[in-house]
Amino acid sequence: MPLVDLPLAERRxxxxxxxxxxxxxxxxxxxxxxxxxxxxxxxxxxxxxxxVDAWPWVLQLPAGLDTELGSGEHKLSPxxxxxLALARLVIADPHTLVLDExxxxxDPRAARHLERSLAAVLEGRTVIAIAHRLFAAHDADRVAVIxxxxxxELGSHHELVQADGPYAALWRSWHGTPQPKIAAIxxxxxxxxxxxxxTAGQL
Length: 203
Known about the structure:
Elements: H1 8-14, E1 15-18, E2 27-28, H2 29-33, H3 42-51, H4 55-58, E3 68-69, H5 78-92, E4 96-100, H6 108-121, E5 126-130, H7 134-139, E6 143-147, E7 150-155, H8 157-163, H9 166-174, H10 180-184
Parallel strand pairs: 1-4, 4-5
Antiparallel strand pairs: 2-3, 6-7
Helix pairs in contact: 3-5, 8-9
């Protein structure tokens, strides 16, 4: 059945969004993670936190999973709050997920490791990832380069590099090896305008 034809409640269960905005709710860490599925067990909450590389700092909390979060309680860093949102995603177990700069607040190297960890957990699901870090595009099945609100290129990472267009120029720039080609298209694509990426199929 097409996604748009699903009943609203089922659609909300099957499609999940994690954005760069992070939300921490009043309650324990356990309650914050299990918000997406209140019936989740402690083992499932722990596994979700481990999947998003959050377990090391969770072990340092004063009361572990029972640590109170929210207004006036233990305060998480922006990066920790983003990991918390991703742990909710793991618990929700959706069919389709949209990651809108979902690791933007995390150190790039840590984010790379996190995304690889998530890939194992989310294998087999449909993932749409919007990102400005090109390693996300490298892993995608299909990459859509967006310029001025329009898709200017569409293909796999390797296909777009071989095409030697805007994506290839950005990839070279990302790796610190700009070539004259970049200057030629600078009016179309800023070196700071990294493409949004879309994955169809597995993350």
